[in-house]
């Protein structure tokens, strides 16, 4: 698993991680200097390509760029959205496939908060997004 700086992620929340052989969607907590997650052991020998650790207000994202040969990371917080005009924020609600939301502690839908801005040519561009529940 990518070496995740624990001080940048929410102390508990959801993990959405993509591996070469599957997807992990589960709850997690941080304690004793590590991430604790039931489903993570299934992917112990697998290669992770993308990881989102999030709660309602904060998301830590790590995506491996094959072109750059390194991880691209970002920490996004709800407080950053207060600086964005409300017309440039768009929230999508997406359903979680039943096969991933099999336990009562997992949500059946997620919110994607899209952040837009106008380019120099007055076209609307998606600049970032944050996953929430």
Please describe what this structure looks like.
- With 133 residues, the chain is mainly beta.
- It has a six-stranded antiparallel β-sheet, with no helix packed on it.
- The radius of gyration is 16 Å and the shape is globular.
- The mean pLDDT is 95.
Describe, in short, the structure shown:
With 133 residues, this protein is an all-beta fold. It has strands spanning 12-19, 22-31, 34-36, 48-54, 58-65, 70-77, 89-95, 109-118, 124-132.
The succession of helices and strands, N to C, reads EEEEEEEEE
Low-confidence stretches: none
Distance between the termini: 24 Å
What is the arithmetic mean of pLDDT? 95
Structural class: mainly beta
Strand content: over 45%
**What can be said about the biggest beta sheet?**
6 strands, antiparallel
| Strand order within the widest beta sheet | 3-2-1-4-5-6
Number of H/I helices? 0
Count of distinct strands = 9
- Shape field: globular
User: What's the alpha carbon Rg, rounded to whole Å?
Assistant: 16 Å
Q: Indicate the percent of residues in helices.
A: under 10%
């Amino acid at each position: 698993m990518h070496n995740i700086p624990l001080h940048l992620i929410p102390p508990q929340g959801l993990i959405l991680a993509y591996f070469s052989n599957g997807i992990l969607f589960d709850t997690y907590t941080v304690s004793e200097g590590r991430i604790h997650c039931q489903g993570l052991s299934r992917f112990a020998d697998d290669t992770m390509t993308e990881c989102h650790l999030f709660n309602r207000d904060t998301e830590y994202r790590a995506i491996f760029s094959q072109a750059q040969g390194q991880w691209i990371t970002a920490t996004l917080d709800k407080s950053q959205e207060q600086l964005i005009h409300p017309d440039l924020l768009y929230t999508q609600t997406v359903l979680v496939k039943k096969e991933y939301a099999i336990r009562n502690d997992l949500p059946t839908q997620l919110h994607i908060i899209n952040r837009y801005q106008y380019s120099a040519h007055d076209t609307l561009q998606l600049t970032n997004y944050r996953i929430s529940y």
